[in-house]
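Annex B, item 7. Sequence and structure tokens for protein A, then protein B.
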Amino acid sequence: MPDIKNPALGDNWFPSRWGADDELGAGNLLGPHKVLGASRLIKTGEMISLGFPYRSGMPLSPGRTFALKMPGGPTGGPEGRLSRTVYNDDFIAAEIGQVGTHMDALGHLGGEISYPCGHCEALVYNGNKLSDIWTPCGLKKLGIEKAPIFFTRGVLLDVQALFDEPLRNGFEITPDHLNSCLERQGMDRDGWLAPGDVVLIRTGHGSRFFSEAETWYEGAPGLGLAAAEFLSALQPVVVGADNFAVDVVPSIDPDLVLPCHQHLIMRHGIYLHEGMNLDALAESGRYEFVYAFAPLRIEGATGSPGTPFALL
């Protein structure tokens, strides 16, 4: 076992509670019982998108790309003497799993671990060595194709509403803030989140998604490590936020970069949903809902784009 000094991971963080070969992580908490339980929350049948559109001009982390091109106008045709059928295709070039609204795969993020002998190596969820699973064409294990389809109970914690305005960049959300949300929203502090539920954090950073696209990745309000520990103890399957990292950026401790990522993904196998659009959900006044998302099954990919949505 490595000589771990990282408080985001603690001691004996692998093998996973689901076994040394597990690749599903907290997805193991899902099942028909969660689908049936969540379906009882549907009252009006209204659906609310929890994602932003993908388009030129959206925020991009430095070094990442999104471009859509139409290869011909039309791309093909006309075909058929009478129908004269034409069609359009598109070509997208992007870090498709890591731009805009996206979910992180369990193989997306890891950490370099130092052993007592002085040897270092990068590990990811369940103690997998990155050198064993990385290839130029994708991950051999822990790719997004191993993630489940999500249809489960979701809970919104509207931290922005505590302050009546979007939180400033670098604002650390603590367990006290999350408890204050529960009180404000009239939710019982005991039993408000069950294993396999989803919790979404509204910071207000999503309101800047297009209006401040050029600087959106320069910093963000988000969870501190103590808040991530508070949530992980309740065993959610997904933690999502309307910022780009779930973590507060910059990190409170410069020696701990993205500690919530490490704690939630590496230690607990909890999926992160980033860059979410939570304003319409907050405006609905519903803090409990069905969260639904089906990641694209791109084998070996580090994440998935797509449109998560709430059913009310």
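Protein B:
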Amino acid sequence: MTEAPTPAAAPAPAASATPAKPDPRYLALRNFAMSITVFNIFGYTLLGFEQPWLWPIVSVLFAYTVEMVFELISAWAQRRNARFLGNGVRGVYEFLLPAHITGTAMNMLFYGNNQLLPVLFGVFVGVAGKHAFQAPIAGRMRHFMNPSNFGITASLLAFGSWASIAPPYEFTENANTFFRVAIPLIIVTAGTVINSMLTKKVALIVGWLGGFVIQALLRHWIWDVAIFSALGPMSGVAFVLFTNYMITDPGTTPFKGRNQFMFGASVAMTYGVLMLFNVVYTLFFATSLVCLLRGLGWWAAHLIKRQRERSAAGAEPTARPTDVGNPQGPRAMVA
């Protein structure tokens, strides 16, 4: 008894000569999450963070929970699969990176005295705001409020009478003179690498820093503000952190270089205007206002475009009854 001949094996597809490059947004989120986690560990062990040790863990776990619950609700409402399902542990890990950043940043940059509720409130607003505040940007719905900054802003407005941003001294409280100089340099170096190679937000940082200097000079020349006071915030660790890790959020800032520059300069000028009205916590409020105006601008552009499309559709000539069934129109009938 002879064996049936086996069919010829199909040729294997040729392997790609160049492997696919990792998603730069994922790399930026991963490196940012790693760096802010390491900074928190150093903060609690070496620098002088005053929040309880358990709070960052609670904040991060709460951020994970809120993110997954709202994603399930959004998936049910939009009749799609949740983004963290179907891709194994790696998919869940990548999905939770933004929530990890929000929970860690909220606990690190906001100071609720001995109360955890303001911190968790900010985490909830920051994470849930990604699902609530969206606009049609570049053909798809995207969130436009910087999650960490928005959460801090909301908590300052709700609990500002007895809560505040983290006092700047705690970032270098237990450091000696050498490390007080080294800490900003380390933050600047790590942030520059992330923003230049991964998030590509150098133009935004240039616009922000240049605009900050300009608004300081204008306040000095026109309103007689002491130049050292106007430029003083740039020398602090909090400003360095804000510049490299807060204002450059990849998901809520423009992609094109010119638009990035304008975004950064707009935040700086808004900061200057708020300072004239003696508004405190100005960095966070200025960023939230610019993000809000940007989202409203996208909605206005979308509605104007839809209105124009409807007007153009209504202006199209309709076929007359005598032309129905005659593709050539009345000219063919005459012929």
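Comment on protein B: The chain has twelve helices and four strands.
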